[in-house]
Predict the structure.
Amino acid sequence: MNNINFILIGKIKDRNLQSLINDFILKLSKYCNCKLIYSEEKLVFDENNEKYIQQALEYEKNKVVKYIKQDDFLILLDLHGESFNSEEFAREFHDIIQYHTNIVFLIGSSYGLSDDLRKRANLRLKLSNMTFTHPLSLLLILEQVFRSFKIINNEKYHK
């Protein structure tokens, strides 16, 4: 069984959203060992100062790398990543889980992700051309991973 970790830099403040996320974590437990990890976000006093943002990204990277092992398949949610429809993602995900036991999905903070993490990523995934909050992005990728398992196993869910 695959180990899949979902790492979110930041916190979820909305209890209803947290409940939906917990529901998908539970649903995924049928298909994989699933874990949700929250990592600390560094708040920037002056968001117009690129130096402070880069310092925050470096700080967040240093906090999150302890959860990512060298042999993990790292998938970043990234605005500049590759986009798939649900069937395409299920095929890609099927290939990933065939060859990799440990998979990590990483959702960055409101400042994005460091270039070092982008270079480390095995796949950079774009959810949409639209902008979503990071907690909502977590919910969306959880749902798509669940949908992928359903498609891969020829189970009813996907229309």
